[in-house]
Design a protein that fits this description.
This protein has 4 helices and 5 strands. The chain is α/β, with parallel strands linked by helices. The mean pLDDT is 88.
Length: 151
C-alpha cells in the first residue's frame, strides 16, 4: 500500500514539475487518487499560477474544492472536476472572471451550483450524471405548466 501511495505522490510531483519547468498553461492531475488538492502544490507553482488556464482534477476522490484553490488559480479558463465526490463549490468561484468551461459531471451535486450563475464568461457547464435529475424534471414540468397557462 505504501509503495502505491509513494508512486502516486511521485506521479503528482512529476506532473507539477513538468508544468512549472515547461511553463505550460495547463495542469493535469486527473486519475491521481487525490482526496484533497495537495497544499504543497501552491508553493511549488507560485511562480506560474497566473499562467495556468486549464486544470484537470478529473477522476480523483475530491470531496470539496477550497477557496484557496480558486483564488490561487484565478486565471482559469477551463476546469475539469468530473468524476469526484463534490456536492458544492466555494463562493469564490464567482471571482473566476475568465472561466469559460467547467465539467462537474459524475459528482454528487443535488442542485445547480449557485456561484456559477454569476460567472458571466461561462459558456459550458457539464452537470451530467449528478443527483440533480429529479429536480430538473420538476423545474421543466413547472416551466411547461407556466407556458401553457400564458398561451
Amino acid at each position: 500500500m505504501q509503495k502505491k501511495m509513494g508512486e502516486a505522490v511521485a506521479r503528482v510531483a512529476r506532473k507539477v514539475n513538468d508544468t512549472v519547468e515547461n511553463k505550460t498553461d495547463s495542469l493535469d492531475l486527473a486519475n491521481c487518487k487525490l482526496m484533497t488538492f495537495p497544499v504543497g502544490i501552491y508553493k511549488a507553482m507560485r511562480s506560474v499560477t497566473e499562467g495556468i488556464h486549464r486544470i484537470s482534477l478529473a477522476n480523483n476522490e475530491l470531496k470539496s474544492l477550497t477557496s484557496r484553490f480558486v483564488t490561487t488559480f484565478s486565471q482559469l479558463r477551463e476546469l475539469n472536476l468530473a468524476g469526484n465526490y463534490l456536492h458544492r463549490l466555494p463562493e469564490e468561484v464567482t471571482s473566476l472572471l475568465h472561466l469559460r468551461a467547467i465539467n462537474l459531471s459524475r459528482n454528487r451535486f443535488q442542485r445547480f451550483p449557485e456561484p456559477l450563475a454569476t460567472v458571466a464568461t461561462l459558456e459550458t457547464i457539464d452537470l451530467e450524471e449528478n443527483e440533480i435529475a429529479g429536480m430538473l424534471k420538476e423545474l421543466i414540468a413547472g416551466l411547461q405548466t407556466a407556458f401553457k397557462s400564458t398561451c
